[in-house]
Amino acid sequence: MENDRYKTYNTKRNEIISQYRKKKLVNVAVTLAAGVLLLIIVIALKDFLNIAVTLVLSAMIIMVTVIFARIRVVTINYTMSSRLRLYEQEEPQFHANFRK
């Protein structure tokens, strides 16, 4: 396989990786922003809520936000690896020449 084919293969592969990195960054930022917004609302309502309720709600919001963000990251990583696998299957000569 020529250098041009390697370059086009690597270029397309890097485009797929950068696309999913951006998607991951946006999803995590939106999730964390929503968590921070809910946390601010709970803290703003501390005059109406008991201190124990405020602390419990704050802890729950933080835990759910972190868990949901992590689930999104794992899901996007799995989708990226699946798409990369499908892309690599489209390039059979790359694997045949890679083993040489």
Overall average pLDDT: 88
Structural class: mainly alpha
- Give the N-to-C terminal Cα separation: 11 Å
Strand percentage lies at under 5%
Spans of at least 5 consecutive residues whose pLDDT stays below 50 are: none
The largest sheet is: none
Radius of gyration: 22 Å
SSE arrangement, N to C: HHH
**Residue share in helices?**
over 70%
Structure write-up:
- The N and C termini lie close together (11 Å).
- The protein is mainly α.
- The chain is rod-shaped and about 70 Å long.
- The chain contains three helices and no strands.
What's this entry about, in short?
This protein has 100 residues and is an all-alpha fold. The protein is 88% helix and 0% strand.
